[in-house]
Amino acid sequence: MLKDLFHKRRQYATLGLPESARQEGAAQKDNIPKGIVNKCKTCGAILMAKELQKHLHTCPHCGYHFPLDAPTRIEWTLDNDCFFEYDAGLTAVDPLAFPDYPAKVRKAVEQTGLAEAVVTGEGTLQGHPVVVGVMDSRFIMASMGSAVGEKLTRAIERAGQKRYPLLLFTASGGARMQEGILSLMQMAKTSAALQRLHEQRVLYVTIITHPTTGGVSASFASLGDIILAEPGALFGFAGPRVIEQTMRQKLPDDFQTAEFMLKHGMIDKVVHRKEMRNTLAAILRMHGSRGWGGGD
Are 245 and 293 a contacting pair, CB within 8 Å? Predict the structure, then answer.
């Protein structure tokens, strides 16, 4: 199944779509050949693509974590060729007849090769069976619509049925406004499913990646038994600019970053991407692989 995900991604990457053209234009503007080198958004270092790959798409100079697509994150987290996708064909509908929404969804599908903004499934991590969900910010900024909420809820329920620990990598701009109240309802639906999972004593680990905001941060992203985050990841409901304008006061420079949230007790640990797989494996070993109680 993981090979199928990468095949779709390669297939759509050759279509020459407008977003690709915009990315190429931006690269040319910065005199950076696309696909050969990348520029770090934090320190400005010019990095060869092979060097970036070697460092798991993190800057070796300042530690900036470049965004990852869902197939790559799954490949780097789970054991080799050991991923079975859930609900691969589940995608958004247009319940409110919102202008241009179907076209926007089709475009996201073509650009990413994904059916929706989250990929869910099961596999093993250093031999430990897990259910995993990974949000992909390339798909309408990983906004949470009814299909995303349904895929996540089904994954949560399967984790409970199988008694497999649940790992969710979050990255989202929040609720998908084109679906109105149906999108906001997913906050309650996923939270209720996680409460049932908690009552079953099955371990749930959240991994916050940049950015995790809006309705996602206010629901399942904040409900992990253990909450990890990548360095520098933005984690909050409203953005710093909105909060500053509302409160009419200057916020700390690191406000809502993973490091700020750790300092204020909102997450449990900031983990570099290079250490994430081993950290998750250690947590699974500590809790008996299948949950707080261990065993079946």
Answer: no
